[in-house]
Design goal:
Elements (H helix, E strand, L loop, with lengths): L11 E5 L4 H12 L5 E2 L4 E8 L2 E12 L2 E6 L9 H12 L3 E4 L11 E5 L5 E5 L6
Antiparallel strand pairs: 1-5, 1-6, 2-3, 3-4, 4-5, 6-7, 7-8
Length: 133
């Protein structure tokens, strides 16, 4: 859990600059008890983990947005309350740049604004127009 004061998200999606399968397997195994990622089509990988007794389906899609890989946790039952908390953990454990939405999206919000997290712990709000392509 994090100390972020935002409500828990219904799912979590982060974007990884690098997606080394072995490192992802190790991180996902430690974080949600996931089995190793298995191929699920061209550039796609799947696994399932568990948190607090609830199954957590996970999908990795390589090169989805400006060369970044999308990592999607299709469950609110994860170790993280929101995308930013997950992205912080990923940036640290995978030693790569990670991006995520600034918060839950609402009509009228700018869809191109993202949070950029670096392995050194630095964070910045950025414009990322290629993220929706």
């Amino acid at each position: 859990m994090t100390s972020d004061s935002q409500p828990r998200y219904p799912d979590i999606e982060i974007y990884l600059a690098k997606a080394p399968i072995e490192a992802l397997d190790e991180w996902l195994g430690a974080a949600i008890g996931a089995e190793p990622l298995a191929p699920a089509g061209k550039g796609q990988w799947r696994t399932r983990g568990h948190h607090d007794g609830v199954e957590v389906p996970v999908l990795l899609v390589e090169k989805t947005a400006d060369g970044f890989a999308s990592l999607w946790f299709d469950s609110p039952a994860t170790s993280w309350e929101n995308d930013a908390a997950c992205a912080r953990s990923a940036a640290t454990h995978l030693s790569c740049e990670v991006r995520c939405s600034l918060g839950s999206w609402h009509p009228g919000d700018d869809p191109d604004r993202f949070l950029q997290l670096l392995p050194d712990g630095s964070e910045a709000e950025i414009d990322w127009p290629d993220s929706r392509r």
